[in-house]
Amino acid sequence: MNIFGPEKPLSDSNLWRAIVAVASVVIGTGVILVWGKLPQPSELVELSVVFETVQSLPRVWGKTGGDVVIAPPVAVEPPQLPELIGTMLSAETFSAKSIIVKDDATGAVLYRQAEYEERPMASLTKLMSALVILEKAPRWSSSTQVVGDDIIDTHMYAGDTHTLDQLWHAALIGSSNKAIYTLADAVGWPRAAFVERMNEKARELGMANTVFVDPTGLDAGNVSTASDLAIIMQEAMRHERIRNALLTKEYSLYSTERGKEHHLWNTNWLLLGWIPSELREIRGGKTGYIPESGYNFVLQTADQAGHALTVVILGATTHEARFTEARDAAEWVWANYRWPE
Fold first, then answer.
1. For residues 211 and 60, which has the higher predicted lDDT (pLDDT)?
2. Measured at the alpha carbon of residue 224, what is the angle toward residues 152 and 334, in degrees to the nearest 5?
3. Alpha helices per DSSP H over 291-318
4. Is the full-model pTM beyond 0.85?
5. What span, in angstroms and rounded, lies between the C-alpha atoms of 53 and 2?
6. Class of domain 83-338
């Protein structure tokens, strides 16, 4: 029960009326107690309402002009963005259909070319597959048999037994399609559910123009944009297990069933030094190719001052061009942008 009627700010006159009413009840109660008459239960109920109302009065008094007094927001300094000091490159500089170069610290886009054009991802898809697999926290020392799917793969055979850790390295170092499919099956989800989680995670990351239809990237229905793929590369590089695999130059798989070893080189030729470059630090990269996509590549690299860039190349015309164009785009940014001190 509210003795003052509906809750609303009180005018000065109504406020004093309320105070007088409360005082009257309190004084009346004191008189009753002085004469030795205890309040009846119904009167105690009324008193409790009165005291609750008294406790609420400071909240009414704290209002000014009918509005709650709120402290002004604290001013936040905007991030200091890199400043272009050179001449912007023309689109004809590169063969790639889509390119983006982002400053990792601020998210600033330092070079762009058709960055929102949807294109097939090819094996860049495996970065999202890896993220979903990590969510399931698999037991890496456990073993499983390679799937029997009739898909392109040069690193392993159906029925061979490998640990999940070996399959993980084969998938991210050698871009093995059978390895990523076997891992996706091993985490305990039906394939449709696994792919649905890939799409759900893309939405969570803000990748609005990305669709996954399988975990490998062999299907041209796996589409994304350079802008979205920069997001997924940055997210993937936050995970140590992904970073370590992408920085492993070579790896050997042993097949017990065949009694032989198979050697894998990392598909990132910049990491291997097979493409000459003066990049100070390569933090990770992933390749992708199917005929519909052309040659794709994502790279994270940093200069001597620690400025980190994410570079996405989609649709380069040759295998080597994806590496040279990623290298050239990064080196151009460092030569033509100035970072704040």
1. 211
2. 105
3. none
4. no
5. 8
6. alpha beta
